[in-house]
Amino acid sequence: MYLKHLHPDQLRDAVTRGLPLLVPAGCIECHGPHLPLGHDTLLVEEICARVAQEVECVIAPSFDYGPTGYAVSGPEMGTLDPDYTAFGLYVKSLLRAFCEMGFRTIVVIILHQGMEAPLALAFKKAAAELAFELALEKRSRGWWGERPLSAEENREFWSRIHVRPLILPAASPPASGDHGGYYETSFLLATRPELVDQGKLDQHAPWYCHLGEEKSSATAHAEQGRTMVEACVRAWVEELQRLGP
User: Fold this and answer.
1) What DSSP state is assigned to residue 163?
2) Mean pLDDT on 36-64
3) Nearest one of 24, 106, 101, 34 to 65, comparing CA atoms
């Protein structure tokens, strides 16, 4: 179910039952002439939708405008790179709002530049700061010295927000990543084929399309994508079951 589709009573029911909130995060960035600018977020959304068919959960509206560092192009090719400080504050404010809604398990799922890049770091920093702030709000200063935290308090403060890569270790192999190359093109051919146009790949395609190599954007295919999608979904179903309500 999608957060923006819920009525207030449905939201309260989801929170009461302890359903996890999945938060897709990505960016707007050039991924070659054959792929859409929103590839990263689109793929996370597609995996979340498939996971939701297996495990009850709520899917939040996506964070579409993550930092890119203009790594592969500037705005003239469609890449956007927001101010990092402003983005971090935006992330933190919305994660706090999700906590105030009552969600006890919030899982941010990222596909972009790895878990030590600005996008993932913004969420990890916000999660760490919120853990301390929520503890202070609930228990006041010196909260650690008052008494040991209960298991429920530990979960509330330190295990509430999880920031994870889309491709979990359990899914790799067969799932793997690149930038608009064989793997990412295959992923999207399996999920949103109408958004892929391999006919636009020519001698002017950027290096990361790996044209001329055995595994390239041009040789990507839906069968490989389906294998990776299935592995990702299976790994995420197991991960959400492990995190529990």
Assistant:
1) E
2) 97
3) 24
Contact (CB, 8 A) for 72 and 206:
yes
Domain assignment present for 128:
yes
180 in the Ramachandran plot: left (φ > 0), alpha (ψ -120 to 50) or beta?
Answer: left
- 149 Rama class: left (phi>0) / alpha (psi -120 to 50) / beta: beta
> Would the pLDDT of 152 be above 90?
no
**What confidence tier does 153 reach under pLDDT thresholds 50, 70, 90?**
low
Q: Read off the tokens for 84.
A: 């990092």
Write out pLDDT tens, residues 71-125: 999 999 999 999 999 999 999 999 999 999 999 999 999 999 999 999 999 999 9
Evaluate whether 47 touches 229 at the Cβ level (below 8 Å). Answer: yes
pTM summary value:
0.93
Query: Parallel, antiparallel, or unpaired: how do β-strands 58-59 and 161-165 relate?
Result: unpaired
Judge contact between 67 and 122, C-beta under 8 A. Answer: yes
In a domain, 182, yes or no: no
Q: Is 2 strand, coil or helix?
A: strand
Q: What's the CATH number where 91 sits?
A: 3.40.50.10310
Does residue 192 form part of some domain?
no
